[in-house]
């Protein structure tokens, strides 16, 4: 097991966490990370993904991220279920990324299920700031509007944001998750997706 972790988890999870590979690595560190990822993408297989997704948050984070890069949407149900169940912290970042990469009906199903479950629980701050941008990304890829109902006046998004004024601010036309939070998080999510498209071929540029 230690050999497996040393090969497939330890070199990646801290860089994947919070999008550090895009925002917090110096140039030479990014170059080394990119090379390791490219090499891993050549040898990773479905059995490795299954083992990663059955592990703790570090393994799940890494496994979902690689799964997204590979576009292996056959794992959408496993990843989506883990996102909604939220049995470990942080892994939802990778799950959101993967579902955004798939950008299919399963992505919409699980991302909206997560938001419908956790936005009404206004005292909980989990992966909402990853899931909402992921759904916006899916809408952008498919020219759909599944995210709109969360952004309107008196919608789930606004009700969730009501006691988080330092995070959210409503726009005049009625969209919420504004300025200090969703706009910023959406931009950061877009940067992550574009980074991966440039260096690893997946996902599509948005």
Structural description of this entry:
This protein is mainly alpha-helical and 206 residues long. The protein is built from twelve helices and no strands. α8 runs parallel beside α10. It is globular. It starts with a helix and ends in a 6-residue tail after the last helix.
Summarize model confidence as the mean pLDDT: 88
Taking pLDDT < 50 over at least 5 consecutive residues as the criterion, the unreliable ranges are: 166-180
Radius of gyration: 17 Å
* Proportion in helices: 55-70%
- Reading the helices and strands in chain order gives HHHHHHHHHHHH
Report, as a whole number of angstroms, the end-to-end distance: 38 Å
User: Which quaternary structure do these chains form?
Assistant: single chain
Short description:
It contains 12 helices and no strands.
Walk me through the topology.
Layout: H1 2-8, H2 13-16, H3 20-23, H4 27-43, H5 46-53, H6 57-70, H7 76-85, H8 91-102, H9 105-118, H10 128-142, H11 156-161, H12 182-200
Keywords:
12 helices; 206 residues; 0% strand; mainly alpha; single chain; 63% helix
